[in-house]
Design brief:
The complex is a heterodimer of chains A (318) and B (263).
Chain A lengths: L4 E14 L2 E9 L2 E3 L3 E5 L6 H9 L6 E9 L2 E2 L5 H7 L4 E4 L3 H4 L6 H12 L4 H14 L18 H13 L5 E5 L7 H18 L2 E6 L2 H7 L2 E6 L2 E7 H6 L4 H8 L34 H5 L5 E2 L6 E2 L7
Parallel strand pairs in A: 4-9, 4-10, 7-8, 8-9
Antiparallel strand pairs in A: 1-2, 1-3, 1-5, 5-6, 10-11, 11-13, 12-13
Helix pairs in contact in A: 4-5, 4-6, 6-7
Chain B lengths: L1 E12 L5 E13 L4 E5 L6 H8 L7 E6 L2 E2 L5 H10 E4 L3 H4 L6 H11 L6 H14 L16 H13 L5 E5 L7 H18 L2 E6 L2 H7 L2 E6 L2 E7 H6 L4 H10 L11
Parallel strand pairs in B: 3-8, 3-9, 6-7, 7-8
Antiparallel strand pairs in B: 1-2, 1-4, 4-5, 9-10
Helix pairs in contact in B: 4-6, 6-7
The chains are: A alpha/beta (318), B alpha/beta (263).
């Protein structure tokens, strides 16, 4: 692999200030994404997945503080002035947000909202922008073209709105896209359609992607590598096939066997609130093979025999 | 036990109610005691309308819904109270079903008080504690408000409140779509165990093929308000008859995260 590293995070911490103290949503995160690569971030709600996605886009709320570095082609985007970053956001680093129903402006026709991205980042030419929008809509398999571009968001179904958002995210042909739960709230058939189209758009533009989801089927279809997050930390990271077929961390094993097709073998207990992180290994209260050592010692990411496969468990690979 | 006979539900829209939308179009099926039926279909096909018709939250435009020989829309007030106890529904979003201004203890105790299942406050507390430990919930939750608990906990409490009334039929309207995979597994496992013990019937409404396959013995496939196919789970997945069912089932082969790992 000789492709360049596009995004790299270096000891990234994201903290949120709450009335009595601070919670750490992302803890010591070191990840890198190469050009044209799809990294999937899997984890339960509240484990810090979206906080990480938003920190790359610099869309964190005011009460959040960021420590560490995020490098985009070697440039630190954490310290970059907002003016400079605005030239990147949307053009080179784009996002496809999670709730299609609330992410579109209800007062503007959906075609116009996609045009806007092109006009802002590509060239100021309205007819070229509309042409580009219709081309994207056609690629995404939206029906009733070109009339659909003049429809307001409430006239579209959930799956169609999600595809309009995909068009918006890819209109400026960005190098890197953060896709946050693209299939949330969609039913089986729509979900399949959206995944297929996202995969198609990604391969067309050869853009790199950070895919945030809790759905393994989406991860398996689209991603090259998977990182599993638990309570603000990456607990396992490796190539998609290896992680899904030979999971090493007990938490990964747990969620894979909790899938309906594997018979609902649930992990006991709930994932901890970020205000009450347990000592030692963060997973030890729910882990079936926890020992005394697990309650005290906080494990580092450890290499397993396979290349690039790491797991945050004291007994990984044993 | 519960039978739908040619049930149609239509909505009128437009200024003079001139446009008619048929949400459910002459649907007939029946659920026997101790049977688990899955209702499968995409968004907007009328799945939830059926769930609401069966719980008397909506009235059918045509046709009858019969429960143990009684038409549910011609019942007396006393019979309705009994019926509402026997047939219970689990909704999609657990946070929304609780009264935000009531503490969870009162929310849980309300049906017990309504149906006079306990004689004194002490007995009520004992009964609630017993069920709380059965559902793996800790006591400190009882003094909280609904917004202070997680989605998984809220759905457990919603199911617990239903189970305390010992219903004959549970209607689950996409109970786990809002929840994560591991929490989904916990909730569905719990539901399965309790139904095995109490011999409760289940109508499970979902668009998730894998979940329905794991939970139900029989599947009803719906599209645009009509029933396309009613068959056993194995038949639907192995030899689907209808074209649309074939299309849906064909998609499962794309998702194959089968576990190599077995606990």
């Amino acid at each position: 692999m000789d492709s360049k590293i596009l995004i790299q995070t270096d000891h990234l911490y994201v903290q949120f200030a709450i009335p009595n103290g601070k919670v750490c949503a992302v803890n010591d995160l070191n990840l890198s994404i190469k050009e044209g690569e799809v990294l999937c971030l899997v984890g339960e709600s509240g484990c810090g997945k979206s906080a990480f996605g938003n920190s790359i886009l610099r869309l964190l709320p005011d009460n959040a503080t960021l420590q560490g570095h995020i490098y985009y082609y070697g440039k630190d985007i954490v310290r970059m002035p907002e003016k400079e970053f605005r030239l990147l956001r949307g053009k080179e680093i784009a996002c496809i947000p999670q709730s299609a129903a609330t992410s579109l402006n209800p007062l503007i026709e959906c075609g116009k909202q996609v045009d806007e991205v092109y006009l802002l980042h590509k060239e100021k030419n309205k007819s070229a922008a509309r042409k580009n929008t219709l081309r994207l809509f056609k690629m995404l398999g939206l029906p009733r073209l070109p009339e659909l571009a003049g429809d307001y968001p409430h006239e579209l179904s959930g799956g169609m709105k999600q595809r309009v958002l995909v068009a918006m995210g890819t209109a400026a042909e960005p190098k890197f896209i953060v896709v946050d739960e693209p299939t949330k709230g969609l039913d089986w058939a729509r979900k399949h359609e959206v995944i297929e189209r996202i995969g198609y758009m990604q391969s067309m533009h050869n853009s790199a992607m950070l895919l945030i989801t809790h759905d393994f089927s989406v991860a398996e279809l689209l991603s090259d590598r998977i990182a599993i997050m638990y309570a603000g930390e990456v607990v396992e990271h490796g190539e998609t096939k290896q992680v899904l077929q030979k999971p090493q961390h007990p938490y990964t094993k747990g969620i894979i066997s909790a899938l309906p097709q594997n018979g609902f073998k649930a992990i006991e207990g709930f994932s901890p609130a970020l205000t009450e992180i347990p000592s030692g290994c963060r997973f030890h209260p729910r882990c079936p093979n926890a020992t005394c050592e697990c309650t005290v010692q906080h494990p580092e990411l450890q290499k397993i025999n396979e290349p690039n496969h790491v797991s945050r468990c004291l007994y990984a690979g044993v | 036990m519960l039978e739908f006979k040619n049930v149609t539900k239509q909505y009128h829209s437009g200024v003079f109610g001139t446009y008619i939308t048929k949400a459910v179009d002459s649907v007939s099926f029946s659920i026997d005691a101790n049977e688990r039926i899955g209702l499968l279909g995409e968004s907007g096909c009328g799945k939830s309308t059926i769930a609401r018709l069966a719980t008397k939250l909506l009235y059918p435009s045509k046709g009858n819904i019969v429960f143990n020989g009684n038409d549910i829309n011609r019942m007396s007030a006393g019979e309705i109270k009994e019926y509402r106890r026997d047939v219970q529904i689990v909704f999609q979003n657990p946070q929304q079903i609780f009264n935000p201004r009531m503490k969870l203890y009162d929310t849980i105790a309300e049906p017990l008080r309504l149906y006079k299942l306990t004689k004194c406050p002490k007995e009520e507390k004992e009964k609630i504690d017993e069920y709380m430990s059965m559902f793996g919930l800790t006591d400190d939750i009882l003094s909280r408000y609904p917004k202070e608990i997680s989605g998984g906990q809220a759905q457990r409490i919603a199911i617990m409140r239903i189970i305390m009334l010992e219903p004959k039929l549970i209607i689950a309207d996409e109970p786990t779509t809002m929840l994560d995979v591991s929490v989904q597994a916990q909730i569905l496992r719990l539901l399965q165990n309790i139904m095995d013990v109490n011999k409760t019937a289940l109508l499970f409404v979902s668009h998730d093929l894998d979940v329905i396959r794991a939970m139900c013995q029989k599947i009803i496939v719906m599209k645009d308000g009509r029933i396309l196919e009613i068959n056993t789970t194995e038949e639907v997945f192995e030899h689907p008859k209808d074209e649309y069912t074939k299309f849906l089932v064909g998609k499962t082969n794309l998702y194959n995260v089968q576990s190599v790992f077995t606990a």
